[in-house]
Amino acid sequence: MPQFIKQNWRYAVMLILGLLSVISMLLGLMFGAVKIPATEILSILWGNREHAAYDIIWNIRLPRVLVAALVGIGLALSGAILQGVLRNPMADPHVIGVSSGAGVVGMAMILALPQYGEMLVPAAFAGAVATALLIYALAWKNGMVPVRLILAGVAVSAFLNSAISALLTFYSDRVEGALSFMVGSLSGKSWPHVSMLWPYILIGTALALLGSRRINVILLGDGIAKSLGMRVEMVRLLLIAIASILAAASVSVVGLLGFVGLIVPHISRLIVGKDYRFLLPASVLLGVIVLETSDLIARLAFAPVELPVGVVMGAWSSVLSLSAAFREEYVVYTRKP
Predict the structure, then answer these.
(1) For 140, phi and psi rounded to 5 degrees?
(2) 3-state secondary structure at position 304
(3) Whether residue 169 has pLDDT greater than 90
(4) Is the pLDDT of residue 122 over 50?
């Protein structure tokens, strides 16, 4: 396929993903305990406060939809960056311990210090960032080696997961209140959560997109990257820091929501290819679509009972993982030698 046609096809795919992301957010505003027509939603968003559903849309559904979009962007971008700079298709925020760091602090706040519940989000964020810094320190030895970083992340994550299990054992009478944080939930998210998230996600997304060409160079190998004049260790460290901030902000708000950072980049790679100039924007849009759709299913599947979005995301990810695996296997066996 000529390069010109190939690039224009990618732009067309981006446009389609953009439209689907907007539609998924609109559906999230329309459906719930009360179905609200799209025309009425658009009127409310335009500033009309006379509708009876104004409070439902503005104070309940809109912040939840925005949090879902921001978290989808943060986790999807974080996973895509890590898979690129570590050159490991299985890398995601859990590998560098961000999720476990946020999880152990969040669990401590919920179970041992419930009187400080309003500090849950900033405390979980601080725990995630501190854990990432600890893993960097453990993995650093005359530079940052991807394999060493992954091993350090796995070790620290295993230790922190053990700490979470210990907290659940010691405070077994309070486990019910921590379940939504463990699984990942968008229930009860409001404007303060949006305010906490958007600066980190906006800045992290901008920096990630600016670094897309450098990720492409790193994928060629450290030797080639150094021969092109890139300071590989420094660039890799900065990109991992960006991924950590994106994941930390997301996990601190919704809890231990898994699979988004692992699955979305793989699906994006199958759609637009391995060029990170297109892969990162595709991951942004697909992250919104996947999480908004999962949240909508979680709200409607067993209404009026609402499932945590992490349950639906886990079930859906198993299907997406199998589809991606079979697709990759098909490509391998049909590729011309």
Answers:
(1) -80, 125
(2) coil
(3) no
(4) yes
Higher pLDDT, 331 or 45: 45
Rounded CA-CA distance 268/66 in Å is: 21
Instruction: Return the pLDDT at 124.
Output: 81
Measure the CA–CA gap between 173 and 28, rounded to whole angstroms: 34
Question: What percent of the chain has pLDDT above 90?
Answer: 34
Contact 75, 250 (CB under 8 A): yes
Question: CB–CB of 29/66 below 8 Å?
Answer: no
CB 24 within 8 A of CB 293: yes
Q: pTM score, two decimals?
A: 0.89
CA distance 230 to 217: 9
| pLDDT surpasses 60 at 5 | no
- What CATH number is attached to the domain comprising 30? 1.10.3470.10
The beta-strand segments (E) located in the chain are none
DSSP secondary structure string for all residues of 97-142: THHHHHHHHHHIIIII-GGGGGGHHHHHHHHHHHHHHHHHHHHBSS
In sequence order, the β-bridge partners of residue 140 are 144
Element (H, E) at 193: helix 191-210
Please, is 39 exposed, middle or buried when counting C-beta atoms within 10 Å of its C-beta (0-12, 13-18, 19+)?
A: exposed
8-29: b (≥16 Cβ within 10 Å) or e? eebeebbeebeebbeebbbbbb
pLDDT at residue 337 greater than cutoff 60:
no
Give Cα separations from 196 to 28, 143, 302 (angstroms). 21, 33, 30
Domain count, the chain: 1
Containing 84, the helix (H) or strand (E) segment is helix 62-85
pLDDT value at residue 63? 96
What is the domain extent for residue 232? 3-334
